[in-house]
Write a structure and sequence with these properties.
The structure is a homotetramer.
Chain A: H1 2-11, E1 14-17, E2 26-29, H2 35-53, H3 60-67, H4 71-78, H5 81-103, H6 110-127, H7 129-138, H8 144-171, H9 180-202, H10 211-230
Helix pairs in contact in A: 2-3, 2-5, 2-7, 5-6, 5-7, 5-8, 6-7, 6-8, 6-9, 6-10, 7-9, 8-9, 9-10
Chain B binds a DNA duplex through helix 4.
Chain lengths: ~240, ~240, ~240, ~240
DNA sequence: CATGAATGAGTGTTCATTCAT
DNA sequence: CATGAATGAACACTCATTCAT
């Protein structure tokens, strides 16, 4: 009977340790699993390899092996190396944006909302360093289709931050309504700072700061400035 | 007369626009130039191609063509792809550090010095986006020799910023001596914010803010926070 | 019917004669053959090209084409030019040693054994002139790994000859035990003479002597001298 | 004044030790020498490099450097790598044939003439191992023009030996007039044996036998057989 | 004639991708 | 669907050769 067979096959699942270069992950060699699952495994493997080797140096052989699938199957499901890379970027972009969005507590105070958004960002990038490496370092340097996908994701985050800052301004009934353009600039600066900190934290090895520390560093750096700006107080270059 | 004709032909050295893939630059096809000049052209071309395609995907053929030289000549002068990449990193690192250092007016006040340093960094990265892409995105993801070279450069800039902040702290007779690790984090955040702003400014088309405006945005965002930090005042998450 | 047509086409696999440079061999272009067979074809082609052009001048392209396969397949199976050359040497060495060994009738008299050994050596080198060219001319002039492999093979043959001569000496109850170094020299002389005769026979066209005649010529030339040496009788330069 | 200048230049002749790979020779860098001398230096260098690296792997740069001349001059005098190689073969072939011919004492007895011819051959190949390596190993494996040049040289030597054997037969008033074809075969065998012994002696390093020893080995091997043949006594395969 | 800038043509090697079984 | 045979197209790198100065 099919059920019994499947059960048996499941029980006898081959679990083999694989070492690919400095690879540590364990490859699960199981036959006949639903496409959805297989595809996820392929994307997992691809993200890992792309992060480790870079887009161009990553080999489809290695990805297929790490995914525990045959190369023709990878092509059947994901068409080409480019499409595979695109799929990685799409999945990881969405995951990151979701993590940031869902980290924000809409009931919190303005600074609390910014804080929780940052915390979501840093927690996600710390938990998925390969994904972050792909998005931050690989995707932007390998041709238009990839770069613009990442750009769109970035824009989404910038929008979130922009709305956060605008809301802050409104709630503070601030003296000077800052213009939209300046707010967008501030959002870009904030996101850039966060990205840079995330990359730094991920590559700091053992001495990496916790997500809370990283987020606090950034809040310390910018919150006072944001508050000043909301009240029309500017730093002025006394001696340009 | 033949002599005159030849002279004329020589004088009217062929200047042909070339399009290599998405290439836009104009290649100057001039034969027999001193090694120094050719080498600079090669580095220029290499930086551009490395930025556009990434280290691994960049082809020596394309670099040579863009440099207006043949591949063997590139190898004669620069030995190998690795060496060429190293040479790019070295040259661009030094240029960037020099730009930042020489932008700082040592007579200025602490905030003025930070302002002018940012402005220098900013102006340079905006003027040489390819160089910055190579340093920031490529060099760190392609093996030790490159990564450490970039790391050294980054450290120099962080040092500059660190000294700036430290000087600020001293002049402010600040209550709390900030620790080195936190300063490094702040420097990374600053650099990331600056980079992001630069990219945003570069892609804003007509409405692009001037470098001074961009730098002012960043100063507004961070100067107050830096001041607070120097005095031991932190933002605290009231509702974590 | 389409099925029938396809079947026919499959059955009538394209057999095309190819001329590569001065190539004469007929290449069999058959797709999808077992690895073992393809590998043998590759080695055949490699031996031919290495013999014709020399190790350094032989191109993997030409070898692949003559083998009726693509270059990547050659690399998949044989890894590199060096490994391919090694494989050739190994295969041909073993074949030659086997030919010599299996040609010797252990029941025969000493001279009969030498005769049959020569005949075996001779027949093999005449039948596989490319293989002999690779072993004799190429392998020794291209670096240690190759040289020592050929050296080992040569030693095996010298050993065979040595044992033959030693047996002769024993049976003849010879007066003087010849030293090993001299025997090695004699073996080299014999091999050189045999090789030279083989080449001469090969290029004599219609008037070419049979292998047996050639072998007889050599036996006539050396047997008496060998017998003398075994008995301590030397030719002496009466007038140096 | 020109004379003074030249004198000065001559006095300041650069004498630089060069190390090319395992190279040991000392390069004499002298300007303005007669073409004949320069050409000889070039051929010397070429023979050395061709022997050390093989024809294909030898680089014109290295040859020019070892010859102490500029590359364009090498091309001016010798046209191309092929022509240079041909010139080497021609010069060394002639030298070898001359050495063999002039070594033979026409007054000597038959065996004395053979002996002295062999001695000349072995002495020359031992004194010029690079030349012999080029003739024996390189020239025959790099295409028709070279192979046939060497073949012609070889034929000259075979002719010399053939005449020697024929003269021997005549002088011995031998019982059976051996036919010309058999004598030619014997000559080929002899020459091949000598070649093989020369190569062996040259590659034996420190333990290399002297020329007299080598020649004696060969005489011991063949003289008795030759004598027998001249008298119609053949070895016969008792048990073929 | 030396110097050194310059290159066309080719080398060994790799990899994404396909297809028959 | 896994297996493995098969390849087109490219890539880094080298070298004999030329020519202006």
């Amino acid at each position: 009977m099919k059920t019994a067979q499947t059960a048996q096959t499941d029980a006898a699942q081959v679990r083999a340790g694989v070492r690919t270069g400095a690879g540590i992950r364990t490859k699960v060699k199981a036959k006949r699993m639903p496409r959805e699952v297989r595809e996820r495994q392929m994307l997992d493997a691809a993200v890992e390899i792309f992060a480790r080797r870079g887009y161009a140096a990553a080999s489809m052989d290695e990805i297929a092996e790490l995914a525990g699938a045959s190369k023709p199957l990878v092509y059947l499901y994901l068409n080409s190396k480019e499409d595979l890379f695109s799929a990685c970027i799409r999945r990881e972009s969405e995951a990151l944006v979701t993590a940031v969005r869902s980290g924000i507590d809409p009931e919190a105070s303005p600074d609390g909302r910014l804080w929780s958004g940052l915390l979501g960002f840093f927690a996600h990038t710390a938990a998925h360093p390969d994904a972050w490496a792909v998005l931050h370092c690989q995707a932007r340097t390998h041709g238009e289709p990839f770069a613009s996908a990442v750009c769109a994701m970035r824009q989404e985050i910038v929008d979130v931050v922009t709305q956060l800052i605008a809301a802050t301004a409104r709630e503070a009934a601030c003296a000077v309504e800052p213009d939209g353009r300046e707010i967008t600039g501030l959002a870009h600066a904030l996101v850039g700072a966060a990205e840079s900190l995330a990359a730094w934290a991920n590559t700091s090895g053992d001495a990496a700061p916790s997500e809370k520390e990283t987020a606090a560093t950034l809040m310390n750096l910018v919150w006072a400035g944001l508050g000043n700006l909301m009240n029309g107080r500017c730093w002025s270059a006394t001696r340009p």
